[in-house]
Structure formats: C-alpha cells, structure tokens
Amino acid sequence: MLEHTMTLPDMPLPVGDPSLLLIDDDKPFLQRMSRALDQRGFRVSTAESIASGLSALEDHAPAHAVVDMRLSDGNGLDVVAALQRKRPDARVIVLTGYGNIATAVTAVKLGAIDYLAKPADADDVTAALLRCSGIKVELPDNPMSADRVRWEHIQRVYELCDRNVSETARRLSMHRRTLQRILAKRAPR
C-alpha cells in the first residue's frame, strides 16, 4: 500500500509497485514531471540520457517508465526494448515532440502502452500509465487535420525507406525537393 498524504482529485493511485523511471534530456521538464508524478503516488527515479537510463535499469527494472523519444545520445526506444526484456509487465509511455505514426507503431511493437506528443502534462501521463487494457479510448476533441494525416503518411513512408529522401520521393511520386521542404517543416496541427 502506498503511504502518500497528498492525493489529487479524480486521479487513481498506482496499484502494486509504484516505481517509475522518467527519462528526458530537458532538465526543467524532467524536474517538473518528476515532482508531479511523485505527487500522484509514483516512486520516481530520473535519467537524462539513454546511457544513464540503461544503467538505472540494471539496478532496478521499474514497473512504469516514461521515456522521451529523442535524447541527446540516441533513441529512447532502445530503453523501451531493454526494459521490456528485463521486465515484460512494465507499463511504458513514450513522449515526443516529433510525433509520427511510424515511430508510434514501432514504440507499441517494442512494448510501449501509449505514445504521447509533447507537451503532455502529468495528468495525461498518469491516465495513460494507469489505464486498464481493454478500456475504449475516447475520440479526441480535435482529431488530426487532413494536412496532418498527409504529413504522417509521408513520415511513415520516409521511415520505411530508411530515411532515404530519393527513394521516398520516388515511392510517393513526388519531386525530391518538394519532399525535402515538407520534411524540414514541423508537423501541421
């Protein structure tokens, strides 16, 4: 049983092992999210890189993890895969500021239970970590626009072509320079 005096309204507490590893290279975000998740009943440990995250897994494989996709020393999916090998029942959330469908699919295949775009707040993360499997996810208030769906499709093909711009452009019947301009822009809303 958890021994926390502070509970937040309408937020369930983690049941069983409340250990959580939070990995992000954005130090202010890491500190804010760590405090917020601690207040929600998790026992939080933090890491700012893949190397320190993998090292933390060697000491103790947590029941929960929140991992940033792009870290200064590599891809956060490496930590997801390592955690799933060490503790298959771990509930992992992947956070990213560069969301696309291809990486979300890869994250889920590696064992992540959800994939959240930044800026995600602690309530979103907690809800995703504690959501029981089998619960139907509600339709978002603002679903992806047609421009975003197109961008996601281009990103998926780009990933499937091993990030080869020329091959992606050929498969999409698109001029290579046009594709490069699209890839250089941020994702539409």
UniProtKB/TrEMBL annotation:
SUPFAM superfamilies per the UniProt record, alphabetical: CheY-like (SSF52172)
Biological process, per Gene Ontology: phosphorelay signal transduction system
SMART domains named among the record's database cross-references: REC
CDD domains referenced in this protein's UniProt entry, alphabetically: REC_RegA-like
Start and end residues of each Response regulatory domain: 19-133
Name of the protein in its database record: ActR/PrrA/RegA family redox response regulator transcription factor
Positions bearing 4-aspartylphosphate: 68
Keyword DNA-binding among record annotations: yes
Pfam families from the UniProt entry: Response_reg
